[in-house]
Design brief:
Layout (H helix, E strand, L loop, with lengths): L1 H13 L1 H21 L14 H12 L9 E7 L9 H17 L3 E5 L13 E8 L8 H16 L3 E5 L10 H19 L2 H25 L10 H28 L4 H28 L7 H32 L6 H8 L5 H5 L5 H11 L1 H16 L7 E2 L11 H13 L7 E6 L6 H13 L4 E6 L8 E8 L6 H12 L1 H8 L2 E5 L1 H35 L3 H26 L15 E2 L2 H29 L4 H28 L7 H33 L8 H6 L8 H9 L15
Helix pairs in contact: 1-2, 1-9, 1-10, 2-7, 2-10, 4-5, 6-7, 6-22, 7-8, 7-10, 8-9, 8-10, 8-21, 8-22, 9-10, 9-19, 9-21, 13-22, 14-20, 14-23, 19-20, 19-21, 20-21, 20-23, 21-22, 21-23, 22-23
Amino acid sequence: MATFLYKLGRFAFRRRKLVALLWVALFAIAGVAASSAAKAEDPGFALPGTESQKAFDLMEERFPGASADGASARIVFKAPAGQKMTDDGPKAEVNEFIADLKKGSTEIASVVDPYSGNAVSQDGSTAYVSVSYKVNTMELEDKSKESLTDVAKEARDSGLTVELGGDATMVEQHSTGAEMIGILIAAVVLVITFGSLIAAGLPLLTAVIGVGIGISTITALANVLDLGTTTSMLAMMIGLAVGIDYALFIVSRYRAELAEGREKEEAAGRAVGTAGSAVVFAGLTVVIALAGLAVVNIPILSKMGFAAAGTVVIAVVIAISLIPALLGFAGDRILGRKARKARKAGAHTNKGLEGEKPKLGVRWARFVLRRPVAVLLTSVVGLGLIAVPAASLQVGLPDEGSSSPASTQRKAYDLLSDGFGPGFNGPLSIVVDAKGSKDAQGAVDEAAAMIGKMDGVAATIPGELNKAGDTGMITVVPKERPSSVETENLVENIRGKKDDLKADTGATLFVTGATALNIDFSQKMNDALVPYLALVVGLAFLLLVLVFRSILVPLKAALGFLLSVVAALGAVVAVYQWGWLADLFNVEQPGPIMSMMPIFMVGVVFGLAMDYEVFLVTRMREAYVHGERPGETVVTGFRHGARVVSAAAIIMIGVFAGFISSGEQMVMMMGFGLAIAVFFDAFVVRMAIVPAVLALLGDKAWWLPRWLDKALPNVDVEGEKLHKQLADSPEDPDGDRQLVGVR
């Protein structure tokens, strides 16, 4: 592989105009395709195999239109002190509000006023209006949303407290501020790392091109492949991350080759042949992690994973083709001023270009080699202690009760909780399939009576049978808030009564609704975590065995990753579930961790962690096969890789940490979790545990059974065959010119 990539790197360098033109053409074609594609429709959210999904499907079949996915809103009113919502004044204001709301939007399907819909609290202080729309949230026009907020503002002017809830009031979140913070941090780190604006700008440019092509392609294919509107979120995040990382690795190796006296074209070929091999295999591990999301069997996650994996493939191809082409355009400007002067002066050694004083990475590597046991124990014990809270992990999906206290959604949620009880914000829908019952209405009534006697139930409201008279629905209002453990237990208890109802009436009940759907989603994510880990870590282990031709090095990489992820989950639990340092991280209401968090963190962090592992340890492996002693290989790896890996990690930490300032609890949690996970993995696992373990193992680190050594294909990631070929022949593998700078 190294030889092939060497040829590709030199070809791209020589034919840089052609290569750059091809990528510009691809970028333009993808952009045109995306702009001309029809607007993507929301494919909906499905949980195959869960009881909630079965109930929704049954509702769609037996109650046509009952489970429609149109947007909804709840407008909550609270009367001024000393008044009630049933008084003439507030009542007139509510009726006027409803009339104005109907005039302001043609997308409204129905409006239920609180007086005919029994939506006034017992003390009369609170009431709400239910609004249903003909289209879903993603298709709802801005005009309809603006009408809702404008009419609510007019009602507030009359003295009523008016707050808005429901998915129709959701504002599309734009993370432009967080992204700009991340890009700014990346630019500063790259300038410090390379000492050259050209070298700093190149990774950002290629990452943006790769993400642009990836996102445009996803947009163009959204309707054809039913990708929906949220598929590109993960692709954008991961594509930007790995795009910068991979460009960093190639550019850094190119500069190192120039420092050894290579001519530019030769340096580009060697950089792509060696660091490019690491990029290819690092990219494969990321693709495995993202494509592995399919094991969760949630369509939207599978599509997000495959789309992001495609963007990673684009980033890899850009790194091994467009990067060397752009290096050809950059010339000596890819180096800093001191390095350019040293190169002109004929300094052909690392010392000549980089300075005689050992780098911080080298000094740290030597420190670890002197005290490997102390460093290893300190790192493992430290991460182990941080990981302890992960044993208490509770997962769930956030509702409007976890929104910012300043948001109208949170205020509406609190008003409903105060006026109607905490469980009112998350009612359960019970579907009673009475096809096998002689008395359908009797089965529904018996189910309602049975559920009403259960602990944790505030009220049960039986509904009418469907037109066929074989299916009924019951609304159950829990006593506790939707995301509470008590409500989760109530759902399990109701489902546990299924056999009793079947035996007594012949009918079958299903529990669904947003609250039950959230519970099923969380359970599905929990059940998939171990198989996902086994698949991702197992396949990556086999891939790393192929890359490093070692058993212990891949094993160490996998165990180190698991340690960093568990420690990161422990930190997330401590802050967002237990409330430690809540004020520092603006955690308004500690509670269950978002159910997507563990598996999402595993996928994203695993990809980035393997990037750092492959790049850092491949350089050590390269030094080992070229005759250096085990201890020297660690120092060599840190000399060439520590600064780049540190820069890549700092950039990613900055990008993720930027989201902590978001007002959305879910986004803040994701940003914190990913930032702390990258910090643990890059600076504790890769920079401390890895060199300590390699120092203790010595030559044994690179041991591979003979039979396995013969069975495995030699992919030559470290470029051993390439170096021998270049050293033995005065001509390069292309045979078109003599090599320069071969020692």
